[in-house]
Amino acid sequence: MKEIINSLKGDKVIWAFVALLALFSFMPVFSASSNLAYMRHGSGNALTYLIKHAVHIFIGFLIIYQIHKIPYHYLRGISIVFLPLIWLLLVYTLVKGTVIEGANASRWLQIPFIGISFQTSTLAAIVLYVYVARYLSKSREIPPSFKASFFELWIPVFITLILILPANFSTAALIFAMVIMLSFIGKYPIKYIGVILGAGLVSLLFFILVVKAFPGAFPNRVQTWEKRMGNFFNKNEEGKNSDEYYQIERAKTAIATGGLYGLGPGKSVQKNFLPQSSSDFIFAIIVEEYGLFGALTILGLYMLLLFRFIIAAHKASTLFGKLVVVGLGFPIVFQALINMGVAVELLPVTGQTLPLISSGGSSIWMTCVAIGIILSVTKKDEEIAQEIAEKEKREEALRKLIDQQLKEDEEQENSSLSEDDSYSIVEQ
Predict the structure, then answer these.
(1) In a domain, 195, yes or no
(2) Acidic residues: which segments have biased composition (predicted)?
(3) Which of 106, 155, 255, 427 has the highest local Cβ count within 10 Å?
């Protein structure tokens, strides 16, 4: 075990927080999955789901380990090559994607021969964040005009968002917000950011009008958004009969039941009524079983992880490394906050999972890809710091050697002078 830990490079604190979140996930996933086991198999035995989750976590850590060994500066070229491929995947997902667990839009692709499905928008977000970081780090050397940056930066961003928006509005909105934040941190001109925000709002309104005019093109999408927003802001009788209202009410009941210390591990009652108890609403199950103490612990871990991402970004030796850490690290924490906000009805239902805790292979693996890249940045910084330290040690050793040689030469010279003086006295 000690050899394995020593082989892990990069920020050890990030490794520790990720491991803590992953280890904690086993208990709520095992408890919440009993509802799925009962509905799908009639036995209520969630051991199969626990083993499946353990496999997902194990593969996730293998992904982190393999990716963190890759020099992160390779991602500059990879992001350019991968972005068109991501667009093709998103188009194929819209046309031929599968629907999972009641979603009314195609968001997943089925991997042939393996039987595993993954959400292409999560992979698209990672590639896009790296692409934006690459452009912003390059543009700091030569400040771009708005026209040049619009075609090189914002056209690829809008193409990606347009391909995600019809099936997953919340993910598209999160990606757009993170890109704007990344642009601000990368010191992209604020006046240009204002123009882009206006263009994004106009594009969204235009898309809504198109869907309204041609409802057969994207069935149920705008109606779903309107329904969720209406249920959140205006609780009418029609809204109270919706699935979203039912899930939120069950989640709030679970949170209210949890109290300060919770009902205890595996003793959740609402897991039997929440359809997404092991994924979208797992935070409610955590609060019910572990109380306010458990909720604050999970929130604290994410906040500490965010703080560590900030430290890693500050320590990064290149602007590209700083932007990569921010672009990939901050969305993980913000997604967690969105998931918690939905559970306590601070936000409308979005379908965002709790990173590293919710069940689901592709969501865990994509989070692990992002963390692996972040650790690759911190690993490079550690290597640079180690090289500097070794160089200083060599220089110090060389200085000592030179000082010792000078001292010996001085002593030898003084000895020679003393002998000469003695010889002169004898001659006299």
Answers:
(1) yes
(2) 408-422
(3) 255
Q: Angle of helix 12-41 relative to helix 47-67, nearest 10 degrees?
A: 150
Q: Residue 18 falls within a domain, yes or no?
A: yes
Per the CB < 8 A criterion, the answer to whether 351 and 108 are in contact is no
Give the residue from 365, 332, 426 showing the smallest Cα distance to 117.
Answer: 365
pLDDT at residue 309 greater than cutoff 70: yes
Residue 307's domain spans which residues?
Answer: 2-391
The predicted model scores a pTM of: 0.85
Q: What is the C-alpha separation between 92 and 317, in angstroms, rounded? A: 39
Contact residues for 198 (Cβ-Cβ < 8 A; gap 6+): none
More confident residue, 350 or 20: 20
Q: Are 281 and 246 in contact (CB under 8 A)?
A: no
The predicted-structure confidence for 69-96, as pLDDT tens digits, reads as follows: 888 889 988 999 999 999 998 888 887 7
Residue 220 lies in a domain: yes
The answer to whether 377 and 257 are in contact (CB under 8 A) is no
**pLDDT tens profile 110-121:** 766 566 677 888
Distance CA 172, CA 125 (A): 9
**Residues, the chain:** 428
Name the CA dihedral angle for 388, 394, 398, 400, rounded to a multiple of 10 degrees: 90
In whole angstroms, give the CA distance from residue 99 to residue 81.
28
Nearest partner of 148 among 188, 112, 116, judged by Cα: 188
Whether pLDDT at 223 is above 90:
no
| Cα–Cα distance, 253 to 344 (Å, whole number) | 10
Number of domain units in the chain? 1
